[in-house]
Amino acid sequence: MEGLENMAFISNAISLVTYFYGYMNFSLTKSATTLTNFMGTSFLLALFGGFISDTYLSRFKTCVLFGSVELLGYVILAVQAHFHSLRPPPCQGLAASQTTQCEAADSGQAAILFTGLYLVAFGTSGVKAALPSLGADQFDDRDPKESAQLSSYFNWFLLSLTIGAIIGVTFVVWISSNQGWDWAFGVCTLAVLFAIVFVSMGKSLYHHNVPKGSPLLRILQVFVVAIRNRKLPLPEMADELHEIHDNEAGVPNEILPRTDQFRFLDRAAIAQKSGEASTSINPGTWRLCTVTQVEETKILIRMLPIILSTVFMNTCLAQLQTFTIQQSTTMDTHILGFKMPGPSIPVIPLVFMFIFIPIYDRIFVPIARKITGIPTGIRYLQRIGVGLVLSAISMAVAGIVEARRKSVAIQNNMVDSIQPLPMSVFWLGYQYAIFGLADMFTLVGLLEFFYAESSAGMKSLSTAISWCSLAFGYFMSSVVVEVVNKVSGGWLANNNLNRDKLNYFYWLLAALSVVNFGIYLACASWYRYKKVEVKQEEISDSRAAKGKQIEVATV
Fold first, then answer.
1. Contact status, residue 508 vs residue 529, Cβ threshold 8 Å
2. Which residue in 262, 218, 257, 261 sits closest to 239, CA to CA?
């Protein structure tokens, strides 16, 4: 499902800026901002999808429901692109200095556009939150063999994303450039429709998760009870805190042992006593929490600095999907007699990822596993760190390439020309290729980290949190562009890249990325991986029929 859905989503993510600019008559800056806001919302709303999946619906039902909403969004966009009366008069082929004369989209046309866009955003958010966890649920992470297969699953999940994205940025983008945007949105509609059909075909084969109630409510209960018990002394022994060890309804199949970080939250698990005897009546979850519930909250708190320190990398990614696409429209896109659409340039990092993901999974991970003894080869946080370093390098290279592009424009007296520069668009491939490798390390590292480290009752929500790094990165991109424009006196204020100082902007991002990596190192060094005690219980799950008894599993 994800390959087809991502084909539709990515093809729009890297080319919608040209639709906004060339067909909806938005300014260059507004086009970039509209796209980054759309992308940010798509990933931020994954929190809602994860919450619904963990609390009310199974992951399978969440995928089907939200996929249907996304389908409706593409239908609306296709209809608007097909009927000229629903769009402003075309304004293409003018010099950059004359684009301000174009007629802007009226309120009705803008309303149709944003309705379709944000239905797509809402739909894809639920799919992205639930689908990775739906696949991961098919593996038993208590089994060492299946634990290694689970790590491999996330790599192949990224490969399916990559294959879908390759088709999207080549085939679908070619359709939008040559056949029209109505055809492109139509293809996206069919792709999402088939994605829903294919995931539904496997319904009888899946291990379906049972929603365990709201993880956000459980976390809130811990804070409320801890504050209520703030004056109580903390016991020294962990067994003096409240825990449920039998198989009561609603209790996750894991026991999280007490840790010494954020000890003030341990007060939520202190059973208050009346005289010499403890209260025999169950006081309720708003007056007493289990140690597992407290540790579930601690895990989320420990995760927050990690996710926040990866946000800036995705701010850099947003630039590759906006300004770099605009750079490509000013360059020579011919190769071997074939004209490649500018928005198809991201196929370069995708091809790199397509090649290196199998190499990483089948060669690097087994070798690293033998050396480190870790099922994933290297720790999740190490993998994320490698990606952050590569993203900083990518931004530095992007600045160098942009400086050369501007020099070519000046040397050929083409600063204000709308004709392509005598410089191959594949110069942009250097920054894209490096960032593609960065994405391979960081994206899968985050997904695997949040799924593995989260408790049993919040797998979808934790997966959604990993996507929030992308969301905050896109939103921060809009803020960074505005702030840089004001502070610098207009590095990115023109509708003409040849007169902007985009190279300075890229170098600024590279410098900030280095600072961000230093912050990440501090956060990763402070983080402690969770430990889980798994209790054997009689359940009807087919995996339980194996009769395996695993006393303690350390993640």
1. no
2. 257
